[in-house]
Amino acid sequence: MTLTGGAPRDVAHPFARRSLIGLNAANFFQAEMVGVVLPVLSAFLRESNWRYDAIGVATAAGALGTLIFQTPAGLITDRVSCRRWLFAIAAIITGLCFAIIPIIPHTYTWIDPLLFIAGAAQSFFAPLLGALALALVGHNMLNRTIGTNQGWNHAGNIVAALSAMAVVSKLGVNSIFYAVGFSSALAAASVLLIREHDLDERVATGLTRQDQSPVKWNILLGERTILFAFISIFCFHLANAPILPVVALYVKQLGGSDRLMTATVLTAQCVMVPVALFAGKFCDVWGRKPVLAIAFWALPLRILSYSLVKSATAVVWLQTLDGIGAGIYGVAVVALAADLTRGKGRFNTLMGLFATAVAVGGFVGPLITGVLLQHLGFTLTFYSFAGLALVGAIVFSLLVPETRDAPQENPRIMQEAA
Asked: 3-state DSSP helix/strand/coil percent for the chain, to nearest 5?
């Protein structure tokens, strides 16, 4: 039994195994596509005699593309029905941008625009994958499904890291960029395994059986919970986004090999797989806030810990804490957005807004990091971002309530009053 595009999906229902396989595979190959590219890119540019601050600008160029297009990506995802094809196009563009980096001049005028385009294309991944999951399984099964999706996503990162460690010593760093192009083609093919008639287009936007149209987006974004969630997520990712490239550079600074540098990704991802499955289950059992709070408080602890060790191997082992935070966040933030938009619509718009907070961190963080590393060194850089992460954890813990069964204001009454 399958459901047509117009059937309501606010109760558990049977759905096609092929479509679920396609959704999991799309998450897997999308992660494999970009899983190790940022730390490798930083090392690649450093070996090309780039300064640390110039590397920060290049990384920020990609984040700027994501920042500019992230909210529009959410708005577009809410409005279109060809989400599978849109994901496939975004994957191919991203893969091409990275695959040609080794064969073009290693100058700012070539590298920075390519990273900007890749960042813009990647802005569509999160809202599209979230919308496809919600359209396929509905609200009641969303958390478990997202937990499984994220498990496959992190497994893709593990495969990417293992592959990188296997080939980087024999074929050089350039091989990683070619692998990104290959994985992008597989991601595009995977998402097309999802059958269109298995998707409920109304539920994909957050609507339920009782709702005929979405609320105005400005009314939704005026809610206090959404405002404070945005602030806490912004602080979280402003601290977290630049840390993986910094850790990769720190490993090299401490005398670590290229293989050990790529292991910074592998260590975290091995932890993320079980953590994502844990988060998918316990977001339903405990609630969204206690699970997401673990991620927020693990981040300042992890960043501060880097400043206390002087061994490249110890730094890599500390990356296990990254697996806790990232593994939880990727699942719980979708549950949070689904709670806040259930019956109102605009699920993908809110996902795009939250992803914009991530993108702002990804853009500003590398710029700050490049300056801090160039002039103050690694230790003070770690102190600075640990303090920022602490602010995000405090804001979330004190000002963002539980959303699982929380009563919500009637947005339609507010809309009529406006």
From this structure: 80, 0, 20
Q: What is the dihedral of CA 377, 383, 387, 390, to 10 degrees?
A: 130
Q: Which two tokens stand for residue 366?
A: 């590398």
Q: Which domains, ranges and CATH numbers included, belong to the chain? A: 17-399 (1.20.1250.20)
CB 335 within 8 A of CB 280: no
Identity of the amino acid at 5 = G
Tokens matching residue 220: 């939704």
Q: Buried (b) or exposed (e) across 73-82, using 16+ Cβ within 10 A?
A: bbbbbbeeee
pLDDT tens, position by position, 56-104:
788 778 878 888 898 898 889 888 888 999 999 999 999 999 999 988 8
Percent of the chain clearing pLDDT 70 (strictly above): 87
pTM: 0.74
pLDDT tens digits, one per residue of 121-152: 998 998 899 899 988 888 778 888 888 998 89
What's the rounded Cα separation, in Å, for the pair 415 and 418? 5
Within 10 angstroms of residue 252's Cβ, the number of other Cβ atoms is: 19
Residue with the two structure tokens 């810990």:
305
Contact 366, 333 (CB under 8 A): no
Average pLDDT (299-304) is 92
Round to whole Å and give the CA distance between 243 and 249. Answer: 10
Reference 268, options 237, 296, 290, 299; nearest CA is 299
Question: Does residue 97 contact residue 44 with C-beta atoms inside 8 Å?
Answer: no
